[in-house]
Every structure is written in C-alpha cells, then in structure tokens.
Design a protein that fits this description.
Elements: H1 21-45, H2 47-53, H3 56-81, H4 85-101, H5 109-132
Helix pairs in contact: 1-2, 1-3, 1-5, 3-4, 3-5, 4-5
C-alpha cells in the first residue's frame, strides 16, 4: 500500500509537503533551553565539568542549526500561508541568540539573553505551525 504525502495549504502556489520542520525547530529550541540551564547548574557544581558545555563551538554549531531550521521552516511558511509575522518574530529571536553569543559567559547575561531569543524563536515556529494547520 503506497503512502500518500500530506500537502499543506490548498491555496499554495507550490505543492510543498508538510515535513514537521516547525516541530523539529521547537524541539531544538527546547534542547537549547535545557542546555542553558544544564550549563549553569554544571558550572555552579563543578567548573571543570561545565567547561565542556560552555565550549563556544557548541554554541556556534547550535546557532547554525537553529538558523538553518528557521530559514527553511519559517521561509516555507511565508510561501504557504503568506503571513510574515512568524518569520519576523523567529528572525528576531535568532538575532537575540546571535547577539548573546558575543556576551561574556561569566555574568549569566548570556544565558538570559539566549533564553529570551530561544523563546522568541519558538514562538515564531509555533505561530508558523498554527498558520499552516
């Protein structure tokens, strides 16, 4: 028996299948939030164990994945439903996250700004998901 693809938005110009990218992106946002909290706890408990999670390379790779998923999912959403607001909110969240990378790790402000950016990005993906369903 063949599996049929569920195509989004009958009014869409392009037959783009629903891939669940917004759900993956929201999950990645959740993992980022867990990472931020876990890093803060591990740093408080043992400075040497927290050093692995505070490696700047992990942050840069995670932000790269977030930008990639955001561009695909939120950009696809604009073509499907025509609403730009999810893209704008998600992009603002990515910008806040990118700015947070440049802050020092020692004061906790990086964690706060990263979590704000993650929340905004997750909101953008949630709005995008709601608009396409």
């Amino acid at each position: 028996m063949g599996r049929t693809m569920d195509y989004a938005a009958p009014h869409s110009v392009l037959p783009i299948p629903r891939l669940g990218i917004d759900r993956w992106a929201i999950g990645l946002s959740g993992l980022c939030a867990v990472h931020c909290f876990a890093s803060a706890v591990l740093v408080a408990l043992a400075a040497s164990a927290g050093g692995l999670l505070l490696n700047p390379l992990i942050h840069e790779i995670g932000l790269s994945f977030a930008i990639l998923l955001g561009a695909v999912a939120l950009g696809r959403g604009v073509f499907l439903h025509g609403y730009v607001m999810p893209l704008a909110i998600g992009s603002f969240g990515l910008g806040v996250m990118a700015g947070a990378i440049s802050l020092p790790h020692d004061g906790g402000s990086e964690t706060v700004w990263t979590l704000i950016g993650v929340g905004l990005l997750a909101l953008g993906h949630d709005l995008n998901h709601r608009a396409t369903h």
